[in-house]
TrEMBL record:
The lineage of its organism: Bacteria, Bacillati, Bacillota, Bacilli, Bacillales. Residues 5-230 form the ABC transporter domain. InterPro entries: AAA+_ATPase (IPR003593), ABC_transporter-like_ATP-bd (IPR003439), ABC_transporter-like_CS (IPR017871), ABC_Transporter_VariousFunc (IPR051782), P-loop_NTPase (IPR027417). Pfam families: ABC_tran. It comes from Halalkalibacter oceani. GO terms for molecular function: ATP binding; ATP hydrolysis activity. SMART domains: AAA. This is ABC transporter ATP-binding protein. Keywords: ATP-binding, Nucleotide-binding, Transport.
Amino acid sequence: MEHVVEMKNVSKTLNGFSVHNMNLAVKQGFVTGFIGANGAGKSTTIKMMMNLLKPDDGEVKLFGLDYRTHEKAIKERIGFVYDGNVFYEGLNVKDIKRIVGPAYKSWDDALFHRYVERFELPLNKAIKTFSKGMQMKASLAIALSHHAELIIMDEPTAGLDPIFRRELLDLLQELMLDGRRTIFFSTHITTDLDRIADYIAFIQNGEIVFNQSIHDVAENYALVKGGVELLDRDTEKAFVRIHRASTGFEALTDNIGAVKETFGNTVVIERASLEDIMYYLKGEKQHV
């Protein structure tokens, strides 16, 4: 099985927003970062992955199975970590384990208690008294304790302090060492993905702009800087979008080879961060 998640020609319209004809594949055994601005369609896509929303058109498969006939089998193999508390606020961690544990055939009580100890989670305090970071740790402990093969994380680091964000990323790297897990990590904090992502899927206005390895993103996209006198109708074709200023221009390209052939040594070519790419592609649809 090469792909853990396959979405083919998926469309969904909800409250005036639409995901359009989405084709998205998530490779087994890797970390895929799912990026896009707030409101781009990340949460809608994840809800369809989780069968919390049903697509209007298209096909969603996880582990090669569809939800119509294999919903329980699919959800046995998924762990979900959300930006915020998904449990009843009056429950404590011990109560949550007692309720959630029996739902999974592969629930591992010893593993759960190891994560509770590692995360320093109080067993008897109500979830509503937890900080955002502690709530996220509780969700992660639950997700990991039934040996989930696919961990779906929706904005897990939003609102967390930098130290805990780094601890979380270190933990995720550790989880990937055995090669058995797949992580789908949705975020608008693109710097979190520089350290852990193998693939990047970028969604904008409900459409997938690209789904590439982090290596290919670095190879294809770059920032180019030079004098505005170098720009004309022909040379501008090398760029996705251009920002002009009195001191010169800065532009994003998705074809570094074409820039080198067109401009030679008259421009400066720099690595484009994921944040740069998101910023420059805002509003662009021609490079889907």
